[in-house]
Amino acid sequence: MAAQEDRIIYSHIGLEGWNASIEKYIESGGYRILAETVKRPREELCDEMSKSNVKGRGGAGFPIGRKWSLLDRKSGKPIYLVCNADESEPGTCKDRLIIYEDPHRLIESIMCAAYAINAAQAFIYIRGEYINGYRVLIEAIEEAKKKNFVGKNVCGGDYSCEITVTRGAGCYVCGEETGLLSSLMGGRAYPRIKPPYFPAVMGIYDCPTIVNNVESLCWVPIVFDKGGEAVSKIGVPGDPGTHIWGVSGQVQKPGRYEIATGACTLGELLYDLCGGPLAGRRFKAVIPGGSSMKILRWDEKFNFKMPDGSMKEIRTEDIPLDSGSFMQCGTAIGSCGIIVMDNTVDMVEAAANLAQFYAHESCGQCTPCREGTMWMSRIATRICEGWGRKEDVDLLKSVADNIVGRTICALGEGAAWPIQSNVAKFKDEYCAKIERQKKDGGQGRLDNNAYRLI
Amino acid sequence: MEIDLELEKQCDAIIAEYPKKKSAAMMIMHLVQEKFGHFDDSTINFVAKKLGVEPIEVYGMLTFYPMYSQQPRGRIHIKVCRTLSCALAGSIKLGNEISRFTGCPMGETRGVYTIEFVECLGNCVKAPNVQVNDKLFDEIRPEDAEKFMEKISALDERGELDQKPAGAKPQGAGDFNSAAYKG
After folding, report:
1. Which residues contact A406 (CB under 8 A, 6 or more apart)?
2. How far is CA A409 from the centre of its chain?
């Protein structure tokens, strides 16, 4: 089975003569689904979404339909829809292409979703670094307003909804839904504790709010058009649809690849589509879903439960590309940003690089995360700079262990998991590095010709 | 810093887009940052008054979000991504080379330059990435640092590097103008 792409969300991207204008989008059949959607009863639409069982694409993988069903519709307060375009997970850049190249797909999707949940207003929170993306969206919304797809009486019906675009300002924790809402309410992006602040019940302005990722929202019109039943049959049961894998790091052809879930394995993606490792190198480790997920050794073996129920031992490269399979292997697909590392990479440096990232991005509310991320960063950096001590390896693990489960939001876990798994799976490399440092007083790098990561 | 009527009007227009005044904070702060280059007491007070909050709240946001600044930055603001995907492609070396070539220490401002390492710029598949003002340059190999900076100087002389307002027209379909440096 050779790996091949199956473009549903990216169907327009890379087409000859394609651009972000509304004319092109309408030519390709765009906004037809929105016009049909606003004539359908809302319960039916929400049912379709639940039936499809499409999971959120932002990282947590919570089914979109279930999120919508938790919405507090009885409170009498206005309902808001927020599109989370604050894509800041390292290794992830799938939404960027949708925003830049196909903004009308996103706008149609937002309007379909807003109608289905009866939102009073929709927001797009786009990360500050995507300056031109903001411009593209603003222009696209203006175009859509002129054609009556956004604003008052959408498509001639009686539903009205505006889309407001807000820019972030370089803060990773805004990708966390409650942190995003804090920022959108005009303050520091402090995540809020659940309960009681489940956005579907107490979101922005303490009103019921749905926060969905860009790619998740793009599934909405597809589900409304094809029907939940049909979409649930794409890919494997339990994780229907396609995933856009952003492969970065040390492969021949890094890029974004949209593949139906379970249609190929990790090895097929990295060898067939990405062209394999760089010349003369071997794969060593893979972070499967954005930097927050647990790392996999390339030579690891797993006891894997096959779809027919039998058990089989598989290698990392045999893991099928769907969320359930990665769960079985003790990690998760997160936001599908694969970072590939080959045999030249010093894993301690990789860990130090990520630890610095999380230390920079911790919002500072919870002590275990604020102090722990900083501490991990200092230990890992110290080892890289030639000041490693034998006990540092266990200390690093113990600090990471003490963050997990003790924070308001998932940033704590996101910071601890990569370090925990890195230390557990490459402990020999940490010890060898510290040994080398003791011997020659240098930094003990694995490969002195490799680029420094810190 | 002088606050003119036009800025007031722009702020009012932003506030009108939100159900609550305070929500306009992010966008108004971007506007002020863009217009004055940094924040001082007078601009903090202005934003606070516009939003109907205490100045300390604006100050709190200012110190929280990395894109807002209290110090003036150089005309050419270079952000080099240092997070893992870019680092694997040599961005740490690239950043240090750029810093050496321009004579501007990392994280500081010298003359027209401000150079800093930043976290993920969100274009990991085309590492390493460098953002200069509002433009993104991708796939810049560390060996090409000098060539890249020559290109940046040339673009700057032609005025093509100037930061355009966030509300300006988009530059084509994307800002993937690596061709501009490879040119």
Report:
1. A366, A368, A369, A412
2. 15
B18 touches chain A (CB under 8 A): yes
CA atoms within 13 A on the CB side of B173: 17
Q: Which residues of B touch A343 (CB under 8 A)?
A: none
Tell me how far apart the alpha carbons of residues A271 and B61 are, in angstroms, rounded to a whole number.
45
Residue A434 contacts residue A444 (beta carbons within 8 Å): yes
Which residues on A lie below 8 Å from B64 (Cβ)?
171, 188-189, 363
Strand (E) or helix (H) holding A83: strand A80-85
Percent of chain A residues past pLDDT 70, beyond the cut: 100
* A122: chain B residues, CB-CB within 8 Å: none
The domain total for chain A is 3
Residue whose entry in the numeric block shows the structure tokens 């974004």: A256
How far apart CA A164 and CA A320 sit, in angstroms, is 39
CATH at residue A212: 3.40.50.11540
pLDDT one-digit tens code per residue, A428-440: 999 999 999 999 8
Query: CA-CA distance, A291 to A357, in Å (whole number)?
Result: 10
pLDDT at residue A172 greater than cutoff 50: yes
Q: Which domains does chain B have, with CATH numbers?
A: 5-64 (1.10.10), 76-158 (3.40.30.10)
pLDDT, tens digit (0-9, with 9 covering 90-100), for B30-85:
999 999 999 999 999 999 999 999 999 999 999 999 999 999 999 999 999 999 99
Of A138, A187, A360, the CB nearest to B119: A360
pTM of the model: 0.96
CB-CB contact of A149 with A107 (8 Å) = yes
CB < 8 Å to A120, chain B? 19
Record the tokens describing residue A161, joined without a space. 């909804």
Helix, coil or strand: residue A454: coil
Residue pairs between chains A and B whose CB atoms are closer than 8 Å? 183
Query: Which of residues A286, A309, A342 is at a domain's end?
Result: A342
Distance CA A245, CA A1 (A): 18
CB contact under 8 A, B124 and A92: yes
Closest CB to A139: pick one of B57, B87, B169: B169
ipTM comes to 0.94
